[in-house]
Amino acid sequence: MRQFLIFALAILCLGLITKTDAQSSDTSGGTNNRILVAYFSWSGNAKALAKQIAEETGGDLFEIKTVTAYPETYNETIELAKQEQENNARPALSGSVENMERYGAVFLCYPNWWGTLPMGVFTFLESYDFSGKTIYPLVTHGGSRFGRSLDDIKKLSPKAVIGEGIDVVAYDANPKNGPVVTLPNKEVTSWLTELKMIK
Fold first, then answer.
1. Is the dihedral of CA 66, 164, 57, 175 positive or negative?
2. Which of 28, 165, 170, 188 has fewest C-beta within 10 Å?
3. CATH code: domain of residue 121
4. 131: in domain
5. CA–CA dist 145, 136 (Å, integer)
């Protein structure tokens, strides 16, 4: 009888140790604790700011890139963007995020096109499950700020938490000339500090 009790106690202790090890493994190297910085950029402004965020937070950078490239001229691009919006298009993307489940925070950087997100960003948001994730929007614009993009993000990702966003004035320019935003952008650094993403 005594031997049986000792054996049972040993099995119980082994089970508790295994359970504790599993829990600590989940906490230290588990999922949902990384930062993703996803961006869509035509002129280079959103890309430059996304790179800054990734550098300052240690997040992983991902470009939301459409299979079909947009024209190089501004007027042609905004005309095509208008047509896509009127058709409620979902442009195909050339890449995908691996292991989206490991990210808990997603910085979403994009320009304001016709009052909202570029339609490629619609495709991106509809491609993943953002349950339990917090999306932090950053929009570049020429005066229209977020437009209705925040409402659209909520509709496209209803199970996500929409965190405090930031709008950065940055007029679209010729992509060949590069971004027009000042780098590093002090507003973005202050925003990340307020979010407690950096010290």
1. positive
2. 28
3. 3.40.50.360
4. yes
5. 15
In this prediction, residues 45-59 reach a mean pLDDT of 97
Note if the pTM is more than 0.85. no
- For residue 158, which of 138, 131, 127 has the smallest C-alpha distance? 131
Question: Token digits for 56?
Answer: 């300052």
Using N-to-C axis directions, what is the helix angle for 186-194 and 45-57, rounded to 10°?
40
- pLDDT exceeds cutoff 70 at 26: no
Nearest to 68 by CA among 46, 86, 37, 90: 90
**Count: domains in the chain:** 1
> Which among 13, 23, 47 is positioned nearest to 181, based on CA atoms?
47
Nearest 5°: the CA angle 41, 167, 37 is: 50
Specify which residues 138 forms β-bridges with: 109, 166
